[in-house]
Amino acid sequence: MSAKKSSLSFREKVWSATKKIPQGKIATYAAIARMIKNPHSARAVGNALNANPFAPVVPCHRVVRADGSIGGFALGSKKKIALLRSEGIQIVNGKVASLQKYLFIK
DNA sequence: GTCGTGACTAGCC
DNA sequence: CGGCTAGCCACGA
Asked: Per residue in A25-72, pLDDT tens?
């Protein structure tokens, strides 16, 4: 089989996968790791987004923790909640309501 | 080549 | 319900 080589760094893949998240939907760090074929790098995914220089370019605010908690945000978790709400996501107690309902997993 | 750090996760009390 | 621990991976110094 033609094994494709990963020319892009791990971070590049993370940003690429995150950019694919449709508006109104969200994904977990583990889900992103799954998209890039690194299901065991959920932690590394967070690191990638933290170093993400494309803050407004990549919908990093659509990425939350596996338990629905907001996790973190370079511009402030408060801002993240505001953005999610603006997309139709219900946030309760700093957590996503019906996380599964909004999850975007391929 | 080794060490420390972090926007993670699951388990245990 | 909350708090702590251990395991996991990628990156920079």
From this structure: 999 999 999 999 999 999 999 999 998 877 778 999 999 999 999 999
Determine the Cα–Cα distance for residues A78 and A61; give it in Å rounded to an integer: 10
Question: Rg of chain A's alpha carbons, rounded to an integer?
Answer: 13
In strand B, which positions have an atom below 7 A from any protein CB?
A: 5-10
Residue A52: CB less than 7 A from any atom in strand C: no
pTM greater than 0.85: yes
How many CB atoms sit inside 10 A of residue A25's CB? 16
The burial of A85, by beta-carbon neighbours within 10 Å (0-12 exposed, 13-18 middle, 19 or more buried), is given as exposed
At residue A105, the pLDDT reads 83
Gap between the Cα atoms of A6 and A9, Å rounded: 7
